[in-house]
Amino acid sequence: MLSNIRIVLVQTFHPGNIGAAARAMKTMGLTNLVLVNPRCFPDEEATRLAAGATDVLEKALVVTSLEDAVQDCVQVVGASARLRSLPLPHFDEPDDMAEQVISNATNAPVALVFGRERSGLTNDEIRCCTHQVSIPANPEYGILNLSQAVQILAYETHRAWRKRDASDFSYQRPLEATPPSREQFVHFQDHLGRLMQQSGFLTQPHARTEEQLQALFSRAQPSRKELSLLRGLLSAFEAHLPK
């Protein structure tokens, strides 16, 4: 699905912005870059600012017109800082755009188009698009660098994708946060129950007490490491009980 999403940069002036955009793309799982008449590409500055995303640059397609870049796309979204008086559907919020882009990208190519650093897209280039999108910002200073705009729309697109069940996206978590297995939790409960009996806290079986403690630890949701720490604490107490 993400492979069907194409980032199109039109007549980028600074090659470093191409590299920074490639980096922004790769962090969000996008790898399909098309350049329309870049002033200078390939270029060492682009490679330097790509910072590990040189594979995106190496696969980038250079074309001579926006029409060539998007002719096979079912949806073409032009990013524009100013609202045009053209009869095109306009997304006020990038997340609304991203939901539709992801839906369309399920079966066919779509494109997000970004214009020149200073002047953006021309009206004729906007007419090549099916939709427009703006990034809400400070009305007194809403100026975004090209790669920043790419990063924001790429993030929203990736966010819409990972919210789908079919994405199988796995959030990164520290190993210490891994929850214990059911077997480990049962061993802990048995250890706790045994120690409560041996210590005299329970003089006879109290199922209700043990159920309440089990509910307490279930709500606490200790990690595997934390449960191991509790087991160690129980063992230390157990070692000081009369034999």
UniProtKB/TrEMBL annotation:
Q: Which residues cross the membrane?
A: none
* Protein's cellular compartments: Cytoplasm
Q: Which InterPro entries match?
A: Alpha/beta_knot_MTases, RNA_MeTrfase_TrmJ/LasT, SpoU_MeTrfase, tRNA_m1G_MTases_N
Q: Which reaction does it catalyse?
A: cytidine(32) in tRNA + S-adenosyl-L-methionine = 2'-O-methylcytidine(32) in tRNA + S-adenosyl-L-homocysteine + H(+); uridine(32) in tRNA + S-adenosyl-L-methionine = 2'-O-methyluridine(32) in tRNA + S-adenosyl-L-homocysteine + H(+)
Record SUPFAM superfamilies: alpha/beta knot
What biological-process terms (Gene Ontology) are attached? Answer: methylation
User: Which superkingdom, per the lineage?
Assistant: Bacteria
Question: What keywords were assigned to this record?
Answer: Cytoplasm, Methyltransferase, S-adenosyl-L-methionine, Transferase, tRNA processing
Q: Which residues form the tRNA/rRNA methyltransferase SpoU type domain?
A: 5-155
EC number(s) in its UniProt entry?
Answer: 2.1.1.200
> Which GO molecular function entries does the Swiss-Prot or TrEMBL record give?
methyltransferase activity
| Record's subunit section | Homodimer.
| Free-text function comment from the UniProt entry | Catalyzes the formation of 2'O-methylated cytidine (Cm32) or 2'O-methylated uridine (Um32) at position 32 in tRNA.
Similarity annotation:
Belongs to the class IV-like SAM-binding methyltransferase superfamily. RNA methyltransferase TrmH family.
Q: What is this protein called?
A: tRNA (cytidine/uridine-2'-O-)-methyltransferase TrmJ
Tell me what organism the protein belongs to: Halomonas colorata
